[in-house]
Specification:
The structure holds two protein chains of two kinds.
Chain A: H1 7-36, H2 45-52, H3 56-87, H4 92-100, H5 107-118, H6 123-130, H7 146-173, H8 178-186, H9 191-202, H10 204-219, H11 223-229, H12 236-246, H13 250-274
Helix pairs in contact in A: 1-13, 2-13, 3-7, 3-10, 5-7, 5-11, 7-10, 7-11, 8-9, 10-13, 12-13
Chain B: H1 5-18, H2 21-57, H3 71-78, H4 82-113, H5 119-128, H6 138-148, H7 154-178, H8 182-190, H9 195-224, H10 227-232, H11 239-246, H12 252-272, H13 277-284
Helix pairs in contact in B: 2-12, 4-7, 4-9, 4-11, 7-9, 7-13, 8-9, 9-12, 11-12
Classes of the chains: A mainly alpha, B mainly alpha.
Chain lengths: 283, 286
């Protein structure tokens, strides 16, 4: 690069750097600062109030449980979908389009779609009634039925966000040369062995980014929970929302935000470590 | 990338002769189950949206459309605040598209065409955004937005949504521009074009479809976002924020109508960009 042109790239990235500094880095620091500020200087008072709240341990428990159930199922389901689609001879485009529709659906809308199925006079109850299993409308989404409420939320999340995992995995699968698998087949490797020994290791970078994306978003889960269960199922982001908007206590809301960020960062670091790929292992 | 299927068909056609028909039946049965899994909830929320009060409380329900008409949807749109919320959502999403392309595409071009010091630091900044729950960052912005007069405006909401869409736009446009040979531009310079003219007349037309796909993704990201929009608005709510607010008190058929309106554009958009879906995510998830 000649010295005459060297200022151009900086001019090109400058607007986005300034923007990210103003609306990503500054609020990040602000959140941390806000969470540690009390009436007189630095204090842990916000964290104490957060930890002392009745919903706190429930929110932690629910959010972790939901993430631990939803994310592995999504990855497994997406792998099954990707494998099945790759076996199709005809109609692959339309199959992929249908399977990726939920990608464009917001968590709020996903919650509402599953509400239409699971509400008291909804389609699930109608089907169970027709089969003679229940005598009349049954509530699945109340405080008295925590497990079916949990299952409903998990289902809606799996329904909505498996598509993004599928897209990332298929994009990754397209980078793996067919020859590897064909060679293994010639040497007599069974389909399961080929999948486990060849596809899966080569898919590691894609799996890693899908897992990071999904886990960070899973700890942010909020609207789908509100659409299905209202306040009956406390989650971390929901508590942050309540403290900010209803209790007008920005400090405790910030403490929740810092907690969610810390968990997300820890999860990202974990995935980067566990699923790291050495450059020579790339396809 | 899905377009590749048509090219591989001749090769797989030979194999399909050997694939036992029982296995093929099993495969299609499985696919049918997956299609139903994806489509059935959308179908039911549509029935709920067009079924009105009567449809929602009918017991037991039939899975076939009954009581369906446009009247319940019109009723929902006529509720005070709904139309305004729809408008706010469109404005916020439109501004998000404009900002994320205007800020992201130049950065993508710089990453694609120049080797410069700080390049890796910039990439790190972009990737760093992915490890954070970005919508949560709307929380501390409430105070400064009130001070700046940005609170409770679609413009303010679009700023936070741009943080979500910008890293995506920068990475995708980078690979988009890398796919356009540098020689095309250099040829234009030789013929007397300035750098800007060469970019505008040669690179831009080639990059346009990919840029359009990026824009659509930015639109969907903003259209669907709930948390930040709910934190940063009170009266000028976006549609998601409005629906979240009325969740507890509104009747079911209004909620389903709102859910259906949220789903509709996203489904159409995904259809419009289906060709780019895998290319875009392959890049964005590297």
């Amino acid at each position: 690069m000649s010295s005459r042109t060297s200022w151009i790239p900086y001019a090109l990235i400058a607007p986005s750097v300034l923007f990210l500094a103003a609306f990503f880095l500054v609020p990040l620091v602000q959140t941390v600062w806000l969470s540690f500020s009390g009436d007189e200087g630095l204090s842990l008072v916000n964290y104490q109030r957060m930890a002392g709240d009745l919903n706190f341990s429930l929110a932690i428990q629910n959010t972790f449980l939901l993430t631990l159930v939803v994310v592995p199922i999504q990855v497994a389901l997406a792998l099954v979908m990707a494998t099945m689609v790759s076996k199709l001879e005809k109609g692959r485009d339309i199959a992929l389009w249908i399977l990726t529709i939920p990608l464009g659906i917001s968590d709020l809308a996903a919650g509402l779609a599953w509400l239409s199925l699971l509400q008291n006079t909804g389609y699930l109850n109608s089907a169970l009634y027709a089969l003679g299993i229940i005598p009349g409308p049954v509530g699945w989404l109340s405080q008295e039925t925590p497990w079916s409420l949990f299952a409903a939320i998990a289902m809606a999340e799996i329904w909505r966000a498996t598509a993004i995992v599928l897209v990332i995995l298929i994009a990754g699968l397209q980078l793996i040369p067919k020859e590897f698998s064909e060679a293994a087949e010639i040497f007599g490797a069974q389909p399961w062995t080929r999948f486990r020994r060849i596809t899966l290791p080569l898919l590691k970078p894609s799996l890693q980014s899908a897992l990071i994306l999904r886990t960070v978003l899973a700890f942010e889960v909020f609207a789908v929970v509100y659409a299905l269960g209202g306040r009956n199922f406390p989650v971390l982001a929901g508590e942050a929302y309540t403290w900010q908007n209803e209790n007008q206590n920005y400090g405790v809301a910030a403490a929740y935000a810092v907690l969610i960020m810390a968990i997300s960062l820890a999860a990202t670091a974990l995935y980067l470590r566990v699923l790291r790929t050495r450059p020579e292992q790339l396809p | 990338m899905t377009a590749t299927t048509s090219e591989v068909q001749p090769a797989t056609a030979a194999r399909s002769m050997t694939l036992p028909s029982a296995r093929r039946l099993l495969l299609w049965t499985g696919m049918a189950v997956l299609f139903a899994w994806v489509l059935v909830p959308i179908y039911f929320v549509a029935l709920g949206a067009f079924g009105g009060r009567l449809g929602v409380f009918r017991w037991p329900k039939s899975i076939w459309p009954s009581d369906v008409s446009f009247a319940p949807m019109m009723q929902f749109l006529a509720i005070e605040g709904v139309f305004n919320a729809l408008l706010n959502s469109l404005i916020a999403a439109g501004l998000t598209v404009v900002f994320s392309i205007l800020l992201g595409a130049p950065a993508g071009y710089a990453l694609a065409r120049y080797a410069f010091r700080g390049q890796n630091a910039y990439r790190l900044l972009v990737l760093l955004t992915r490890a954070f729950p970005l919508a949560i960052l709307a929380l501390p912005l409430t105070v400064s937005f009130i001070r700046l007069g940005l609170y409770d405006t679609p413009f303010g909401v679009s700023l936070i949504h741009t943080v979500l869409a910008l890293p995506f736009a920068a990475l995708v446009t980078q690979s988009l521009f890398m796919g356009i040979p540098r020689e095309y531009e250099e040829a234009a310079w030789v013929f007397g074009c300035t750098r800007f003219q060469a970019f505008w007349k040669v690179v831009m037309p080639l990059a346009l479809p990919g840029l359009a796909a990026t824009a659509i993704f930015a639109f969907v990201i903003s259209w669907n976002e709930v948390f930040a929009a709910s934190i940063l608005t009170v009266r000028e709510r976006t549609l998601t924020a409005y629906l979240l607010k009325i969740l507890a008190e509104s009747p079911l058929h209004y909620r389903f109508a709102g859910g259906f309106i949220l789903i509709l554009p996203s489904v159409l958009f995904i259809f419009a960009v289906r060709k780019y879906l895998f290319a875009v995510w392959g890049i964005a998830s590297k």
